[in-house]
Specification:
Shape: globular
Distance between the termini: 48 Å
Largest sheet: 3 strands, antiparallel
Number of helices: 4
CATH class of one domain: Mainly Alpha
Oligomer: single chain
Strand content: 5-15%
Order of helices and strands: HEHHEEH
């Protein structure tokens, strides 16, 4: 991946599709150690993906757990003026 592509990806306007274990721990209000131990025992109330030593959690699952309303558009609101007009 070129340096330009890496920079563009890093500064994307879309929020990440997943949370890390550290981020999850901060969101649910527990320490990283407690969250890690729960993940190892499969005791977390949401499914996770393990890649190597990393635990990843889908954004939609975390938001559902926390009661955060999250739609598929991730905050995108279309411009009504840009919508195609349908003849009625």
């Amino acid at each position: 991946m070129s340096a330009i592509a890496r920079t563009e990806f890093k500064h994307s306007v879309l929020p990440p599709a997943t949370y890390t274990l550290s981020q999850l721990a901060a969101l649910i209000g527990c320490s990283y150690t407690v969250a890690h131990e729960m993940a190892q025992r499969d005791a977390l109330p949401i499914p996770h993906l393990r890649i190597g030593r990393r635990y990843l959690f889908r954004r939609s699952d975390v938001h559902a757990l926390l009661g955060i309303i999250d739609d598929d558009t991730m905050g995108y609101v279309p411009n009504p003026a840009a919508q195609p007009r349908v003849a009625g």
